[in-house]
Design goal:
The complex is a heterodimer of chains A (about 120) and B (about 110).
Chain A: E1 5-7, E2 10-13, E3 19-24, E4 31-38, E5 42-50, E6 53-57, E7 64-68, E8 74-78, E9 87-94, E10 105-106, E11 110-114
Parallel strand pairs in A: 2-11
Antiparallel strand pairs in A: 1-3, 3-8, 4-5, 4-9, 5-6, 7-8, 9-10, 9-11
Chain B: E1 9-13, E2 18-23, E3 31-38, E4 45-50, E5 55-56, E6 61-64, E7 70-75, E8 84-92, E9 105-110
Parallel strand pairs in B: 1-9
Antiparallel strand pairs in B: 2-7, 3-4, 3-8, 5-6, 6-7, 8-9
Classes of the chains: A mainly beta (about 120), B mainly beta (about 110).
């Protein structure tokens, strides 16, 4: 089985622009979660989608949004980029929506640099 | 969310066993203990999880204290490839809870 894929792997944007990141989950997985990783804050949860519905949302401003398509692929969008949005954005997929024993499989991430 | 406490860093010699501790004194009876690790330049990967009993899989063993206030991830023979940040995470049985990552333990393996 192919793993979680994320595109693009690297991205450079300037302040004020917007960006869309894409995630393709493992085949058969219906849940997709997004995380932001920075040196200062570590790994922080952004949001989770299951069957095209947002099930959980982290503590991020409304500039961060996402969606999931009927084939479980997901996109996240960041509008009006700020320097502090520079980070590694990780996508994870799982078969179920959360749950204490559900294993999440992470992609390699998209490295976003905001200049 | 119940919190976990891990040492910032640990060091091990190659082919020696490694015991990575995690304290979770406020754990509730419905919290599972999960371990993930993040190798350099990669996304995190699942290692193991357990509730009350010790668990083994091909990657590692998880030893859970009888009162469940602490646990230890055991790598039986560390290799250079095991150098990573190891995260101990609690996940509640009920509800759809995301993974809440702490700072983790950075494990260095010396050849």
């Amino acid at each position: 089985k192919a793993g979680v894929t994320q595109t693009p792997r690297y991205l450079i944007k300037t302040r004020g622009q917007q960006v869309t990141l894409s995630c393709s989950p493992i085949s058969g997985h219906r849940s997709v979660s997004w995380y932001q990783q920075t040196p200062g804050q570590g790994l922080q949860f952004l949001f989770e989608y299951f069957s095209e519905t947002q099930r959980n949302k982290g503590n991020f401003p409304g500039r961060f949004s996402g969606r999931q398509f009927s084939n479980s692929r997901s996109e996240m969008n960041v509008s009006t980029l700020e320097l502090g949005d520079s980070a590694l954005y990780l996508c994870a997929s799982s078969q179920l929506a959360g749950g204490s024993t559900d294993t999440q499989y992470f992609g390699p991430g998209t490295r976003l640099t905001v200049l | 969310d119940a919190k976990t406490t891990q040492p910032n860093s640990m060091e091990s010699n190659e082919e020696e066993p490694v015991h990575l501790p995690c304290n979770h004194s406020t754990i509730s009876g419905t919290d599972y203990i999960h371990w993930y690790r993040q190798l350099p330049s990669q996304g995190p990967e699942y290692v193991i999880h357990g509730l009350t009993s010790n668990v083994n899989n091909r990657m590692a063993s998880l030893a859970i204290a009888e009162d469940r206030k602490s646990s230890t991830l055991i790598l039986h023979r560390a290799t250079l490839r095991d150098a990573a940040v190891y995260y101990c995470i609690l996940r509640r049985v009920s509800g759809n809870t995301p993974l809440v990552f702490g700072k983790g333990t950075r494990l260095s393996v010396i050849a």
